[in-house]
Design a protein that fits this description.
The protein is α+β, with helices and mostly antiparallel strands. The chain is built from two helices and four strands, in the order H-E-E-H-E-E.
């Protein structure tokens, strides 16, 4: 008849090893997930910079037309605000009612 105490000891050692292996796998998974999120963030920032993305305020003025000093004074169609019009610095928004707003 085999000795049961040896079997229980071997069984406990196997359980400890399985717990250690699962703990190591969980830690590796966490580090892998964090590394992937970091890489994703870096790639997202790089793509945002290459697109030249800008965040424009979401308000709309009553713009009749836009004038810019270059390439010579000319009237451009009106847009809600300087950002949405993609008007460079120095352009002027001419509002209904005669007011003017400089884009800077």
């Amino acid at each position: 008849m085999p000795d049961r105490s040896i079997y229980i000891l071997v069984s406990l050692q196997g359980s400890r090893q399985a717990i250690a292996d699962s703990t190591i796998m969980a830690i590796n998974f966490k580090f892998s997930a964090m590394a992937l999120l970091l890489i994703y963030g870096v790639l997202l920032e790089q793509s945002r910079q290459s697109w030249g993305a800008t965040v424009c305020p979401l308000f709309c003025l009553q713009v009749e037309y836009i004038t810019c000093p270059w390439p010579g004074p000319r009237r451009l169609p009106g847009s809600c605000n300087c950002c949405l019009a993609r008007a460079p610095k120095g352009c002027t928004l001419h509002l209904a009612g005669g007011r003017q707003i400089q884009c800077n």
